[in-house]
Amino acid sequence: MLEPGRAKPVPTPETQHxxxxxxxGELRLQRCGECSKVYFPPxxxxxxxxxxxxxxxKASGKAILYSYVIHHRPVPGFKPPYAIAVVELxxxxxxxTNIVDCExxxxxxxxxxxxxxxxxxxxxxxxLPLFRPAKG
Amino acid sequence: MGARSVAIVxxxxxxxxxxxxxxxxxxxxxxxxxxxxxxxxLKPKDIDGVATAVETxxxxxxxxxxxxxWVDGTSVGGCSFMIHLRHAAAAIEAGLAKTILITxxxxxxxxxxxPGRSVPPSSLNGQFEQPFGPFxxxxxxPIPVLRYMKKYGVTHEQIAMVSVVxxxxxAKNPRATFxxxxxxxxxxxxxxxxxxxxxxxxxxxxxxxxxxIVTHRDRAKxxxxxxxxxxxxxESVETPMISQMADFTSSRAFSVAGPTAFKExxxxxxxxxxxxxxxxxxxxxxxxxxxxxxxxxxxxxxxxAERNTAPGGKLPVNTNGGGLSYMHSGMYGMYALQESVRQMxxxxxxxxxGAKISVCHGVGGMFAASGTIIFSNQAA
Lengths: 136, 380
Ligand SMILES: [Zn+2]
Hints:
heterodimer; B: alpha/beta; Peroxisomal Thiolase, Chain A, domain 1; 9-stranded mixed sheet; two-stranded antiparallel sheet; 13 helices; 32% helix; binds zinc ion
């Protein structure tokens, strides 16, 4: 369970499937049935071609560290210094996250390092997708 | 030269800038507006168009006693005022208004009469960024920088030079908040805020405001000040989520707004005597120089480090000291516009001798939006 204090997401009808997924250990992305675009964040149509023919699927959870900052000031729910990271998923989309099981230093946080998703509950309703250095 | 038919005939900042706890946010708008009307020799009843951001046009119009026949409440962050100017030009050319007032006021530091900013937890930002600990612009705006630095081999020292050079410009400006010289070592030893950025690479947080009055260029000579003509304008938006920028080494909004303005103006980069690039953080002038085409991809760090944008350099940039040293209330774009107008009038504290064309480039949100204006003091 994550320490309390973080801003807690409130799902909407369009994003509920994503948050249902993280609770059951799935990182869900969406793919367009017309142009095959894989996209994030969730919406019930393709941002590339406008088609409503889209479906959700379970992503691999593999990613690379794309960019980040290391924040040095206190924020509720976080112990500074902590990295606010953007990862690039193997399927293409990028998402903001935190990197766990890793020192929060420029030396430890190397761009392009391989990562894998882990799921950390905030409470009974919301589980966040975080990333850690890939094992093996 | 120039596709637009309008000119700036009134321009002013608030009487005081910096720490102004004795004025509410709406009064900062009004103080700047009254100064700009005095500059143009106008009264509120002479204004028939109002544009503003964050505060609404109805708040500003009513507070100032204006009954407009045209309003624009485009509120896309700090470049809203560039975009207002673009929309005002179109409105005046279409005959929708004759004399348009654009106002900005922000109690960014003292927070008097300032509505707080919050991110709704059901918004996409609220669901997919806020839970991961961003806390204001210093934790968000620099997120793409490490990717940019890695791609082009840009160094911490080169980025620190942005702050050093702008402090040199600020030293020439009596109204600048910070005027004491700083070195690259000073920047790289200042307090860490959000790696890779330290305190001296982040903008000030101050109180202030500014206002512009725009009219048709055919009327411009009837006003007391030297007219500043609008040659070209551009605007765009990309995403409210920094994590979803298409390219972390380039702003798509910059890459639309900038070239659109150059095309409208019918000028090339060689024609530009003076450049303002909104600098909320030290990386923005690098992105701006590249996305507007003043230098090639990855070349901006070296270009600035080699003092091309510094006093005496071939392309003077952010000659008021910028958001890093002059002032930054939160939506800095108005102050960049004011400096371009001063340079074109020949009244800037760090005046570029003989400057005829000034480019003023703004960002809104965190690479969310952009507006570009190209000014000249020469009638076409
Ligand atoms: Zn599609």
